Amino acid sequence: MNIRASVFVVRQPHDPDAPQSAFLRQYRALSQLPACIAPKPHLYLRDWMVVDYLPGAVKTYLPDTNELAGLLYYLHQQPRFGWRITLLPLLELYWQQSDPARRTVGWLRMLKRLRKAREPRPLRLSPLHMDVHAGNLVHSASGLKLIDWEYAGDGDIALELAAVWVENTEQHRQLVNDYATRAKIYPAQLWRQVRRWFPWLLMLKAGWFEYRWRQTGDQQFIRLADDTWRQLLIKQ
């Protein structure tokens, strides 16, 4: 959408079954964030949001780990949004909304185990994006920026780092090390905390893929779910 030489993007919720409050929170998050890392919002209506278009390139791979660590560290220094990210309610929702034929004893056992263990105590509580991957990073002339803030909320910095869609463990360790240097945290301490979140995130991904499979019937979600379940078995 172009208005007087300005370019805007009209956004709608990705999940049509998500509560309206989730989309409103995305608007509120964007309203709080500096324009140097996120698109500025201009209008919110039910199921519609108008935000700035961010010029730049969206690449198929992550940027240099030090550059990405700098972006995440800057985000985590911003004022908190005012609402916490809690994973257990999402894990239970995805179980309930999945195809009954896909629910397994192993899935239920893992869910009960995490429920009993409870989420790791936060190392540092900060505003998080929670969907950092190559497709959500805009390489602009003024630096890296993030789009798609639908999962944003306050949570552990290690949860954010654990959730980044990296290519391999080596890249993940380097990202954590680069972040630890900026945050003045012992890298080994931060990596241990990141690892504590792995079972939660794998369950979150697997459950979301199962949920989207039942919602859309798209076979890609079954393949992604099966792959994530295999990763969970390996890491147990």
From TrEMBL:
Keywords: ATP-binding, Kinase, Nucleotide-binding, Transferase. Pfam families: APH. Residues 8-195 form the Aminoglycoside phosphotransferase domain. Coiled coil: none annotated. One of its GO terms (molecular function) is ATP binding. One of its GO terms (biological process) is thiamine metabolic process. This is Thiamine kinase. It comes from Escherichia coli.
